Amino acid sequence: MKLTLTLLGASLYLNTAFIAGQLGHSIQVLLTTYAKWLSSTSDWSEVGKLEQSLIGTELVQA
Q: What's the domain of life for this entry (predicted)?
């Protein structure tokens, strides 16, 4: 169920913080846990955008 929510949310371009919150994870945990399902170059490009948006913010550890 969590994988479905994660992949569906990502495909709909939902806010990453929202998806992480729904799963009970921090953004960092969300990205590291579900990164194995990212396969294309464009997928990793999107992760790079997320990482850039996190610079200067404080991550809450789960």
A: Bacteria
- Copy the structure tokens of residue 10: 């990502």
Q: What is the pLDDT of residues 42-52, one digit of tens each?
A: 666 766 676 66
Determine contact, residues 22/4, Cβ cutoff 8 Å: no
What average pLDDT does the chain have?
Answer: 70
Closest CA to 28 of 55, 1, 8, 7: 55
What the block records as the tokens of 6 is: 């994660």
Q: How confident is the model at residue 55 (pLDDT cuts 50, 70, 90)?
A: low
pTM for the full predicted model: 0.47
Measured CA to CA, the distance from residue 53 to residue 62 in angstroms comes to: 19
Q: Which of 51, 4, 50, 2 is nearest to 22 (CA)?
A: 2
